[in-house]
Every structure is written in structure tokens, then in C-alpha cells.
Design goal:
- The structure is a single chain.
- This protein is mainly alpha-helical.
- It contains 7 helices and no strands.
- The longest helix has 24 residues.
- The chain starts with a helix and ends with a helix.
Length: 168
């Protein structure tokens, strides 16, 4: 699947895909994240793969993302018990080794972000650290929303690669 075709598919189907996720996940932020995850997975499909019906394939990928998000939410639900339930929680204070390891990993990820091209880095920081919506970033930087999403996807792929090298 070519980049041009994927961009066209993104323009045509993004709205439908977000509505699909909002119905299933019932959370706007989760729907936006799941939409990006779906297109990220589409980018990772090998060029040699022949897809006869791209829209159907896109929504099959989206169903997989929705199932994973629902399963993750279900698993996390049991982890958090209200205090009034009388449960005593374990001490989550990290030990010195964990603190040092965490700081080292954070530095490596910061260096990974610094490796990104300037505009990509700027978009990623505005999105992930400052929590701005893609539309707000586009207006602030004077670029298209589509370009904002491309920069975010590029940064996420780079960070995912670096994180895989760090943790494995």
C-alpha cells in the first residue's frame, strides 16, 4: 500500500473510524488514540501485501485495535479498587535501582526525541507533552492537520523502535 493511497484512505475514512471507536470505547481520547494506532498498523503492512478492499481491511484492523483496547481496559478495571472498599494497598514506592533505571530510560527516550527533525519534534512535544489537539497544533504551526498527524506517526514509530531497543 503506497503512502499516497494511505493518505487518501486516511482523509476519506478518519471520521468514520473515529465514530466507530467512540461507539465502542465511549471515550473521545481513547477513540483518537485507537484511530492513530489503526493507521500506524496500516503503515506497517508490508508493501508487497495485496489488499483488494482497503476500507474493509482498515476496519478489520480497527476491530482488532478495539478488542485490544477493551481487553486492556477490562484488565485495568480490576487493578483499581476504591479506598472505601477497605483494601490496604501495597507500597508502590520504587527502590533506588528502579529510580536509576527509570531515569536512564527517560534520558534515552529524550535523546530519541531530539533525533527527530525539528518540526516533527515540535509537533510531537505539543501533542504528547502539552496535550494539544491535532487541530490546535496545525493552527499554531501553520501546517495542515494531515501533516501534524504524519509527524506524530513518524515520531511514534521512531520512539517505538528506540523503546524496543531499550527494553529488549
Amino acid at each position: 500500500m503506497t503512502t499516497t493511497f494511505l493518505q487518501a484512505l486516511h482523509r476519506m475514512e478518519e471520521g468514520r473510524l473515529k465514530r466507530f471507536f467512540q461507539r465502542r470505547l465511549r471515550n473521545r481520547e481513547d477513540a483518537a488514540d485507537a484511530t492513530q494506532e489503526t493507521f500506524l498498523r496500516m503503515i506497517e503492512v508490508p508493501q508487497s501485501t495485496i489488499i483488494e478492499n482497503p476500507q474493509a481491511y482498515l476496519f478489520q484492523v480497527a476491530k482488532s485495535v478495539a478488542r485490544a483496547a477493551s481487553a486492556r481496559r477490562a484488565a485495568e478495571t480490576g487493578l483499581f479498587v476504591p479506598e472505601e472498599a477497605g483494601c490496604v494497598s501495597a507500597d508502590d514506592t520504587p527502590g533506588p535501582e528502579r529510580i536509576v533505571l527509570g531515569r536512564q530510560q527517560l534520558l534515552l527516550m529524550a535523546k530519541a526525541i531530539e533525533q527527530l527533525p525539528n518540526r516533527c519534534q515540535e509537533v510531537f512535544i505539543l501533542s504528547r507533552l502539552h496535550g494539544l489537539a491535532n487541530g490546535e497544533i496545525a493552527v499554531r504551526l501553520g501546517i495542515s492537520r494531515n501533516m501534524v498527524e504524519k509527524h506524530i506517526i513518524r515520531a511514534l514509530l521512531h520512539c517505538r523502535k528506540v523503546r524496543a531497543e531499550i527494553f529488549f
